[in-house]
Amino acid sequence: MSRIGKMPIPIPQGVTVNILDGNVVEVKGPKGALKKEFHPEMKIEIVDNAIVVKRNSDKPFYKALHGTTRALLNNMVVGVTKGFSKRLIINEKTYKGEVKGRKVQFELGYSHPILMDIPEGLNVTIEGQVITVSGIDKEAVGAFAQKIRHLRKVDPYKVKGIIYEGEKIRRKAGKTVASGK
Q1: CATH of domain 9-81
Q2: 57, 85, 99, 173: least CB-packed within 10 angstroms?
Q3: Phi/psi at 78 (5° precision)
Q4: Beta bridge mates, 105
Q5: Whole-Å CA distances, 11 to 7, 8, 19, 51
Q6: What is the DSSP annotation of 80-101?
Q7: pTM for this prediction
Q8: Which family does it belong to (predicted)?
């Protein structure tokens, strides 16, 4: 069995898990509700106030799917109880970001400002040069943070751009001046 896949997911107080027809799982908690459909070969059950995932085959594809299904279910439970957030840093003093209603406007050194719609279920805050994307769906939070990051990729020579908090950027050395010999 998969080491991750065989671990049960405890259901905390205030969280309800419903397994609908087939492998559609709905998780409701204090922060909201999530619903997701899983592969039909994975058997999802609730046993002793915990979610258990089982598989029918020992083929490599199903072994990998077993662990992935369990991890996605765990992310759903954690999302509706604690939520997820990603922090990005605008690594240049002249670049700016501002939240306007359900849109985010960035001025990143281009000839025009960039407007982005904030997806449903996500919150974006900008304090100085720090952008925080938060929500209950880990996949949506990560995808939107990545979209923001790709608006201005980091220049390896000057280290200007948008980076994740704690991300290490490999700096490149600039050109050296040739001696006049």
Answers
A1: 3.90.930.12
A2: 173
A3: -65, -40
A4: 98, 115
A5: 13, 9, 13, 7
A6: HHT-EEEEEEE-STT-EEEEET
A7: 0.87
A8: Belongs to the universal ribosomal protein uL6 family.
